[in-house]
Amino acid sequence: MRAIPSSRSLLPSLTTGAGPQDSRIDTPEPLSRREFLAGAAAAGVSLFLQTSRPSTPREDATSWAWLADTHISRNTDESVRGTNMAGNLRRVVESLLAERPDRILFNGDIAFKKGLPEDYDAFLKIIEPLKTHGIPICHTPGNHDQRENLSAALEPKVGSPLDGKRVAVLDDGGMHWVFLDSLERVNRFSGMLGPAQLDWLKQDLDAHESHPAIICLHHHPEATAIGLKDADAFLNVVKARRQVKAVIFGHTHRYRRWTAEGLHFINLPAVGFWFSPTVPLGWLRARIRPGTLELQMHTLKADTIVKQDVEHLPLR
Ligand SMILES: [Zn+2]
Ligand SMILES: [Zn+2]
Fold first, then answer.
1. 96/191 Cα distance (integer angstroms)
2. Which residues, in sequence order, are CB contacts of 259 under 8 Å at separation 6+?
3. How far is the CA of 71 from the centre of ligand 2 (A)?
């Protein structure tokens, strides 16, 4: 199946482009532990449920761990610039077990370079404790993933509502989550969503107009040489729809965030390896409360993981 019918016309496009700004630091907050929620990402399913009932983030909002760029090789001794990716992920898994988020996002580049089935076997072995504890996992494909191998490893029974692309949606904690597929060619840097996926996204968001939404994709939505080729078209779609509160991505291996027209853009740090030794590796804990998105960077140091102060981002 492809497009989902929409009952309303598309909103006009707004302007594009806004420069990154430095993160703001706020006060720390204790971590909470919650019972895990059963079930994997309900890809496609909620597209066919109710479309107009308003929703808001709940006070007891689902807590997430957002990870990107694990780059796991079938050879788990593989290192890049002196950093062993499998070792990093093992340490992160330990910290996830201690903090027990309700859900985990792996936002692309799960595999080392080409998305070999053996890469995903190695990845699954490392994250096995998370599955044992029943923590649901969501994912997006990156430019170093192979779409079919990735889906076969992580969600063999879940299909995609868009031919040739792995897209999924999830309604959880009063939020509408959309997981996009920016993989254009395996092991090439730049990415693209394409007109069909952008049309699908418009129609999905318009069918969930009263639901606050978060969009996840691997490539950073900037039309640079290694970024998203159709970043401007994507930004026109998400900026114009005020229900979209944040866009989450990875790919640059660098934690940064900025806000444009009240919409938050959050570039996740890498777990696997760095492009610059001054840029920290790590993962983000996230919780969406009414009116606020809470973020907490967990930075990988040589022998520990440091929890940074919690950042509070107002939702538009
Ligand atoms: Zn990467
Ligand atoms: Zn990438």
1. 29
2. 18, 21, 265, 313
3. 9
Find the ligand nearest to 254 CA: 1
Question: Is the pLDDT score of 68 beyond 60?
Answer: yes
Least confident window among 40-49, 174-183, 217-226, 245-254: 40-49
User: What residue ranges do the domains of the chain occupy?
Assistant: 62-314
Report the separation in Å between the CA atom of 37 and the middle of ligand 2, taken as the mean of its atom positions: 29
β-bridge mates for residue 259, sequence order: 264
The Cα-based distances of 157 to 110, 126, 235 in angstroms read: 19, 21, 31
What are the residues facing 21 on neighbouring strands?
257
Q: How many residues does the chain have?
A: 316
Please give the C-alpha separations between residue 235 and each of 184, 223, 230, in angstroms, as whole numbers: 18, 11, 9
- Give per-residue burial for 83-94: e unless 16+ CB within 10 Å, then b: bbbbebbebbbe
Sequence-separated (6 or more) residues with CB below 8 Å from residue 15? 239, 261
One-letter amino acid identity for 241? R
Q: How far is the CA of 142 from the centre of ligand 2 (A)?
A: 5
DSSP 199: H
Mean pLDDT of 242-266: 98
Distance (angstroms) between ligand 2 centre and the Cα of 190 equals 8
What is the maximum span of the chain, computed from C-alpha positions, in angstroms?
Answer: 54
Token code pair at residue 151: 């889906």
Q: Report the pLDDT value the prediction gives residue 53, as an integer from 0 to 100.
A: 57
C-alpha–C-alpha distance, residues 59 and 169, integer Å? 22
Angle between helices 117-132 and 85-99 (to 10 degrees): 20
> What CATH number does domain 62-314 carry, 3.40.50.2300, 3.40.50.720, 3.60.21.10, 3.40.50.10540?
3.60.21.10
Least confident of 15-29, 68-82, 111-125, 230-244: 15-29
